[in-house]
Amino acid sequence: MSGNTIQILIAMIIYMAAVIIIGFVFAKKANANSENYFLGGRSLGPWVTAMSAEASDMSGWLLMGLPGVAYWCGLADAFWTAFGLAVGTYFNWLIVSKRLRRYSIRANNSITLPEFFSNRFREKNKVVLTLSALFILIFFTVYASSCFVTCGKLFSTLFGMPYITMLIVGAVFVLLYTILGGFLAESASDFMQSIVMIIALSVIVIIGTVKAGGLGAVFENAKEIPGFLDFFGLATPQLSEAGEQLVENGKPLFGEAANYGTLNIFSMMAWGLGYFGMPQVLLRFMAIRKEEELKLSRRIAMIWVVISLGVAVFIGIVGRQLFPLEHLTKASAENIFITLSTSYLPPILAGFVMAGILAATISSSDSYLLIAASAFAKNIFQGVAKKNATDKQVMTVTRITLLAIALIAMVIAMDEDSVIFQIVSFAWAGFGATFGPLMLFSLFWKRTTRAGAVAGMVGGAGMVFLWKLVISNLGGAFGIYELLPAFIFSSICIVVVSLLTKAPSKEIVEDFEAAKSGNV
Known about the structure:
Structural class: mainly alpha
Shape: globular
Number of helices: 19
Strand content: under 5%
């Protein structure tokens, strides 16, 4: 291992030690009871609420996946995805956060998302509870695998070690940390990690732009690639049969720009719909200490999101000029952030910037693992299988579940050629379509029934799989992002089935009106 690599490793070890210390600091309080472990006792301040929500949401996708998309095919896909996410973030904080904070308290002080949906409809046979918990287990296991892919790619690229070995090392670290500290430690470390992420992005984009000769040089280079800087066009790398971009006279080859029409734009902007169903974000709304502080949290979150997304996209564009031949496959393109960091920064600083990727990965994977484990332990084990389970038993089952989910996620992540952006997009669509429409209708339409809720979840999740695996293969208009048609279909299911079934009881309507008025 070279001297430079050792310096990078030392910097990352310092960072990881800081994360572990946070876990120890919050371990005692977090393990006091299941409410503290899963929701932090509703004690988060506005800054931690905002920054931890966004850090847990963005993951390594922000530093690797999104720059990789911009590097590979230009501005359009990356920009419209980022734009949709920014709009979705704003409206989620604006219209969902306050109502959910109130309603989760009114609904028997719910501390998990499945518990909220179940209590919202005052169900006795726990169908909504069980279904929502199972869907969380499925999609968060896929989501966690994307984080492990990030760890594997990061460590193997930096240290020249086998991908599988580095994948296991990263997964074990995240697992131990999550088991130790629970939601409070997760939120506190996510706050720190959100700061590391935005600093890392900003440092790299500034240095990269300077090395490229300034903004003018970056844009002039990008204009030479057909469709690369177009909002309504897409660059098309020419590929060999093996999937590698062809090179001629020392330059990567591109074909004519592909058309990027209205359907493509709506497809990418549909990413914003996913926010209404993201458990890791919605839980922060439930966990803030005061409803009045959500306005400040919204402003903080929006500033962070806009800056981070914009910089991440531009890093991909800068990287295409500085390292045009470095990444000749779509999977490799996601390493452009690492390449820029290790090429232009002193090793010790590069290590701390690399910690930004690790920060993004940890801040998401700990959320995914914890929420998925709580879905099983709190909602299925205690809520259905063993209703008299003690807090200690719930915590034990949680830790066993964390291990099982991590192992399955590691198996999914074993493929070194996995593309982070694609894994995240599928899991994002799953959550967005399964829970997004149900969350909106539960909060804002009192006629929503339990049967409608079940139909919406099953219809949304089913359509994600059907569209992704079958319908999208038809191409053309059917090639749109699966979240959009699945979200629409789920909404239709909720409305139709709710209208065809018996109206909610008086008690359910009273709960709805209380949450609406704030009299909880």
